[in-house]
Structures are given as structure tokens and as C-alpha cells.
Design brief:
single chain, 216 residues, mainly alpha, two-stranded antiparallel ribbon, two-stranded parallel ribbon, 8 helices, 4 strands, globular
Length: 216
């Protein structure tokens, strides 16, 4: 227990120090990104969305906008690929769209390394093992991101998140950060399209869970 407390304290110091340094170094690029977004998509420059954090406590995730709000004739949002702009595609390729999350790290809502914070509506979709991802702070990057990123299916991705929650350590965090830096520099495993919706993929499992709860 003492060793884990020491690790968590050291991890928090690393988060605050690194996030502060990265924000200073990335400030010119973030300013340029803000201007480009404002010029091509208008306001707001930032995308804000409620996501579950540690112990499923909701917080507001920050990202640079990469998509327009274009809708079809019936007022429904167009697909992600149709709304993604050239500037947004460029930001995603450089992973610069995630840079505002450094503020989430400084506020203690996120860590540099941890399972990516997913949508609130996905909470009922997880297995008991997969729910262990919420025992730790969500991260800007994680074990799943350096082992295939969005090219992974949901089962593989959530298994890696659970594995990280079970075996997190300073050494593992440093390895993930190193591999993340290499991926960003090489532009590897960057997918501009969205993952399939987890709710749709696991609709049968959710239905069974609801029926069991009603019977109980």
C-alpha cells in the first residue's frame, strides 16, 4: 500500500510538471491551431464534452474542434468523415487536437497516462473487468493507444485499459510516454474516422443486463 501511495504521488508530480512544460512548449502551435479553427470553422474553438473520470465522476473534456456542425435536410448531424475539415484532419494527424487536455491534467481530472475517457453513455456497456478502467484517472495516452490506437476493436482496447489499471507503474507510464512520442513523430496508427459505437455493438449485452435487473 505504501509503495502504491508513493507511486500515485510521484505520478501526480510528473503530471503537473510535464503538463506545465508541454503547455509552454506547445503554446505557439496551440495559438496557430486556434487561429486556423476560428478562420475555417468559426467559434467555438474548443470542443467540450462531459466524460467519466476516476470512479466515474464526470468532468468536462477539452479538445480543439476538428469537425463542423453540418447537418442533413432533417437536422441530423452528418457523419464524422463528412464533417471533418482539412484543418481538423491535420490536427488529428499531429495529435494536436488533444493538447487542451493538458489543462484537464493540471486540474487533476486526467493524467498524462491512463485509459482514454470515453462517452458517458458507454458506462452500462462494460463488463465487470472492463469497469476497472475507472479505478484510475483517465489519460491523454494509454496502453491501448500505443498498441494499435483506433485500429483496435473494442474488446482489445478495453482489455488493455483493464490491464493498465491492474498493473500501472512508473516504469510502464514512462514506456507508454516514450512510445506515444515515437508514434506522434512518425504519424503512425492515426485513424481519422470514428470507432463503431460501443452501445450499438453491445446492445444485446445491455438488454440482457436490463432484463436481469428487472427480474431481480
Amino acid at each position: 500500500m505504501h509503495g502504491r501511495s508513493y507511486y500515485l504521488s510521484l505520478k501526480r508530480v510528473l503530471d503537473i510538471t510535464a503538463a506545465g512544460v508541454f503547455l509552454v512548449l506547445a503554446a505557439p502551435a496551440m495559438f496557430a491551431a486556434s487561429v486556423l479553427i476560428w478562420a475555417t470553422m468559426g467559434r467555438p474553438v474548443l470542443f467540450r464534452q462531459r466524460r467519466p473520470g476516476r470512479l466515474c465522476r464526470p468532468f468536462t473534456l477539452l479538445k480543439f474542434r476538428t469537425m463542423t456542425e453540418a447537418q442533413d435536410a432533417e437536422g441530423r448531424p452528418l457523419g464524422d468523415c463528412e464533417r471533418l475539415t482539412p484543418v481538423g484532419r491535420w490536427l488529428r494527424r499531429l495529435s494536436l487536437d488533444e493538447a487542451p487536455q493538458l489543462w484537464n491534467v493540471l486540474r487533476g481530472e486526467m493524467s498524462l497516462v491512463g485509459p482514454r475517457p470515453l462517452l458517458m453513455e458507454y458506462l452500462p456497456c462494460y463488463t465487470p473487468r472492463e469497469r476497472t478502467r475507472h479505478l484510475v484517472r483517465p489519460g491523454i495516452t494509454g496502453l491501448a493507444q500505443v498498441n494499435g490506437r483506433n485500429r483496435l476493436g473494442w474488446n482489445e482496447r478495453l482489455e488493455l485499459d483493464a490491464r493498465y489499471a491492474e498493473s500501472q507503474s512508473l516504469g510502464l507510464d514512462l514506456r507508454i510516454l516514450f512510445h506515444t512520442a515515437c508514434q506522434v513523430l512518425r504519424g503512425r496508427d492515426v485513424v481519422t474516422g470514428a470507432l463503431p459505437d460501443l452501445t450499438d455493438e453491445r446492445r444485446d449485452r445491455i438488454g440482457v443486463r436490463v432484463e436481469a435487473a428487472e427480474e431481480g
